[in-house]
Structure formats: structure tokens, C-alpha cells
């Protein structure tokens, strides 16, 4: 598959620096070579903080099949919503047609 998906891994409950480094090294070894991983600190004082590692991975066949099943339904729902809004507002949006001529340069 040529499409990529952004994957997120949250690392919670790290107590020592050594444990955190060990977990990050394990994670790095399992990532694909083209992952381009990013690490961010997320959360707050109320709910706690955690490290979030995000990386790009190839989309699986199952994910592609699932997306394909719902793509048409999503597109149709957006078209119906656009139609409803156009009727409600009394506005019709049309895609402009291409003109037969190229640009005209005026000096």
C-alpha cells in the first residue's frame, strides 16, 4: 500500500529515567526504518502527563478495505449536506468551466 497512517503510542507510568530509556529503546527497535518518529509530552497536572510517540506506518489491507467501504457513504453524505445547505440558503455553487482560450497578456 502506498498510503500511510499515523500511529500513536502513549507511554505512561514510567517511574525512573532508566525504565523510560529502556522502554524507548525497545520501542525504537520495533519501529519500521521509515517511521520518522516524534516524541511529545502530553497531559496536565490534573490528569497526569505521558509521553506520546507518533510515527507513520503503511496502511494495512484490512484498513484500506474498511476505508473503501465507507468512502462512498461519506462522500454521498457530504453531497446531501451540501444540497440541503444550498436549498436552505438559496445559493447554488457550481464548478467553473474551463475556457477554451489560454491566458491573454495585455501590455
β-strand number: 3
Instruction: Output the helix-strand order.
Output: EHEEH
Query: Which structural class do you get from the secondary structure elements?
Result: alpha+beta
Number of H/I helices:
2
Low-confidence stretches: none
Radius of gyration: 24 Å
Task: Give the biggest beta sheet.
Answer: 3 strands, antiparallel
> What's the rounded overall pLDDT mean?
82
Distance between the termini: 50 Å
Biggest β-sheet: strands ordered side by side in the sheet = 1-3-2
Strand fraction:
15-25%
Overall spatial form: elongated
The helicity comes to 40-55%
Give structural notes.
- The protein is α+β, with helices and mostly antiparallel strands.
- It has 2 domains: 4-58; 60-90.
- It has 2 helices and 3 strands.
- It has helices spanning 17-30, 61-89, and strands at residues 4-11, 38-44, 48-58.
- Strands 1-3-2 form a 3-stranded antiparallel beta sheet, with no helix packed on it.
- Strand 2 and strand 3 form a beta hairpin.
- The longest helix is centred in the C-terminal third of the chain and has 29 residues, at 61-89.
- The chain is elongated.
Fold topology:
Elements: E1 4-11, H1 17-30, E2 38-44, E3 48-58, H2 61-89
Antiparallel strand pairs: 1-3, 2-3
Quick synopsis:
The protein has helices at residues 17-30, 61-89, and strands at 4-11, 38-44, 48-58. The chain has 107 residues and is of the alpha+beta class. The protein folds into two domains: 4-58; 60-90.
Fill in the keyword field for this structure.
single chain, 107 residues, alpha+beta, 2 domains, 3-stranded antiparallel sheet, 2 helices, 3 strands
Amino acid at each position: 500500500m502506498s498510503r500511510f497512517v499515523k500511529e500513536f503510542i502513549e507511554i505512561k507510568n514510567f517511574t525512573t529515567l532508566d525504565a523510560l530509556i529502556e522502554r524507548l529503546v525497545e520501542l525504537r527497535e520495533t519501529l519500521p526504518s521509515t517511521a520518522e518518529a516524534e516524541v511529545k509530552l502530553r497531559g496536565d497536572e490534573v490528569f497526569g502527563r505521558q509521553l506520546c510517540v507518533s510515527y507513520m506506518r503503511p496502511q494495512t489491507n484490512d484498513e484500506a478495505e474498511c476505508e473503501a467501504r465507507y468512502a462512498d457513504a461519506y462522500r454521498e453524505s457530504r453531497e446531501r449536506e451540501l444540497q440541503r445547505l444550498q436549498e436552505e440558503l438559496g445559493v447554488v455553487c457550481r464548478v467553473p468551466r474551463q475556457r477554451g482560450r489560454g491566458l491573454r497578456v495585455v501590455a
